[in-house]
Amino acid sequence: RLYQIPFEMPDCEDESQTHTLHLIGDFSAPAEFFVTLGVFSFLYSMAALVLYLRFHSLYAENKKLPFADFCVTLCFAFFWLVAAAAWGKGLSDVKAATRPSSLISAMAVCHGADTVCNAGATPAMGLANISVVR
């Protein structure tokens, strides 16, 4: 939810005043999908573990139960792949929205003929990149 993050932009006419701007974009849906899938996967794993350990005879006798377990596990694996791809796409969208050059181009004060805007430091995205690789 980048739109909730404010940042200050100096006013070139009166340097003592600043304008508050907000970033653009809401890329929270992929992260929420990833976390929700993780929670459901954990709950299903715990339920399956209880079934395997506590009710082993029921699992061994019923031939449809292992197949249903396989199908649910296959669905979770597919959705995990989709969630990981969505997480990666969300990260690339956040990077594009917070790139210093795109932020400078969005500032009206930087469009003047005599104005030179400098972004300063480039943000470090190493930990965010590692979160996608996991």
TrEMBL record:
Keywords: Glycoprotein, Membrane, Transmembrane, Transmembrane helix. The keyword Glycoprotein applies. One of its GO terms (cellular component) is synaptic vesicle membrane. The keyword Protein biosynthesis does not apply. It comes from the Eukaryota. PROSITE patterns: MARVEL. PANTHER family: SYNAPTOPHYSIN, SYNAPTOPHYSIN-LIKE PROTEIN 2. Residues 1-134 form the MARVEL domain. The lineage of its organism: Eukaryota, Metazoa, Chordata, Craniata, Vertebrata. The chain crosses the membrane at residues 33-55, 67-87. This is SYPL2 protein. It comes from Todus mexicanus. It is found in: Membrane. It is a multi-pass membrane protein. Belongs to the synaptophysin/synaptobrevin family.
